[in-house]
Amino acid sequence: SISGTLPSGLSSVTALQSITGFETSLSGTLPSELSSLTVVWTMSFNQTSLIGSIPSLYSTLIALTTLNLHQTSISGSIPSSMDALTALQWLNIHVSQLSGTLPSELSSLTALNQTLTLYDTSLSGTLPSELSSLTVLRAMSFNRTSLIGSIPSLYSKLVSLTTLNLHETSISGTLPSGLSSVTALQSITGYQTSLSGTLPSELSSLTVVWTMSFNQTSLIGSIPSLYSTLIALTTLNLHH
């Protein structure tokens, strides 16, 4: 039941490699002074009452592999200076008051090999095509945001992706046939969006996908007969 604020004086503990305060009653803001913790590799303050924005000075945390700030009241935009965190593997800020656009600079985080989860936030703008450089990323979740625009065709380069969640957004345009190259995909959701066009027959190459949900969209046309190859599929939602 730890409570109160994060002491800025922790910045003097420069040998810190891991600092976790998740599922506590911590409140207040993230002290910018913690930018001096240049060997820290884990910062997890999820499920707390933290508020305020992510300090741009955190760009100095070059050893950081895990940043968990989900289920907080963190607000403001993602600092473009985070492109310096090139060791980052997990970036989770979902279920927060995060706003602004997705910085294209996140494309520099090429070590991201686990999750980029920013769902249930107030993020807006479009999906940067530059994120196609995250070729070892496994999960990308931007659902329940205010994102608009189409799915970049360059996302066909995200060959390690197992989860792509874009449901309950204002994403529009067609499903890129190039997603057929992302053969590790296990779940792809785009329901309650403005997706249109037809179901690409090329997606028949996704032989390990188990969920495809595109209900409540403007998709037209027939279900490709080639989808008979989707032998792992347990859920296919195309209603409404």
Structure description:
- The protein is mainly β and 240 residues long.
- It contains no helices and 20 strands.
- The chain has strands at 3-5, 18-20, 25-28, 42-44, 49-52, 66-68, 73-76, 90-92, 97-98, 115-117, 124-126, 139-141, 146-149, 163-165, 170-174, 187-189, 194-198, 211-213, 218-220, 235-237.
- A 10-stranded parallel β-sheet has the order 2-4-6-8-10-12-14-16-18-20, with no helix packed on it.
- The chain starts with a strand and ends with a strand.
- The mean pLDDT is 97.
Short description:
This protein has 240 residues and is mainly β.
Which helices and strands appear, and what pairs or packs with what?
Blueprint (H helix, E strand, L loop, with lengths): L2 E3 L12 E3 L4 E4 L13 E3 L4 E4 L13 E3 L4 E4 L13 E3 L4 E2 L16 E3 L6 E3 L12 E3 L4 E4 L13 E3 L4 E5 L12 E3 L4 E5 L12 E3 L4 E3 L14 E3 L3
Parallel strand pairs: 1-3, 2-4, 3-5, 4-6, 5-7, 6-8, 7-9, 8-10, 10-12, 11-13, 12-14, 13-15, 14-16, 15-17, 16-18, 17-19, 18-20
